[in-house]
Structure prediction request, 207 residues.
Amino acid sequence: MSRLLVSLLAALALAGCAHKGSNQVQADLPVDKGTVATGAGSAVKMKGNPLPLSGRAIAVGERLPDAMVTGTDLKPVNLGEATGKVRIISVVPSVDTPTCDKQTHELSEKNAGLDKQVEMVTVSMDLPFAQSRFAKEAKIANVRFLSDYKAHEFGDNHGLMIEPLGLLARAVIVTDRDNIVRYIQVVPEVTALPDMQAAMKAAKDLL
Prediction:
């Protein structure tokens, strides 16, 4: 199957049905507890079709690389700068898909109070305007939305760029107060959910 055809199939599957409110999010989406490596030479799958990743690989124990992203206020943010707080960085291809919707709601609503001590972040390629609209419609106020749309620095510097699509792979990263990566899952199958509860446990253990 050609890369173009795979890309089209992937885009269609990711688009699925657009976000229309959390009450319409699928409740039976599978959770994938596996992981793949970040960076060039690795790949994720879409319905079994491999999609290569590009960018610099990162690993547990490394400092989170510098990456300029954009907040919903259109101000630049460097994710490589430590905030003095433990962070859960939820990475999604697009908030306007059922799986990404559910992943973001779980981060926001099923964190057992971690959001009072841990910085919750969602990163995607969506424009800041789309992220802001999503947060408003979903009534999510405890997650910081950041966009990698400008220079793709986050995807490139963290090895999470799905090369044929120009989208980010589905992943969860947990960093400590010094911005050292302590947990990372890159979901092998893009249509599946990450193990958010494992990521939250990793964050709780850092407090």
About this structure: The radius of gyration is 15 Å. Confidence is low (pLDDT under 50) at residues 15-25. The longest helix spans residues 3-15. The helical segments are 3-15, 98-109, 128-138, 153-157, 196-205.
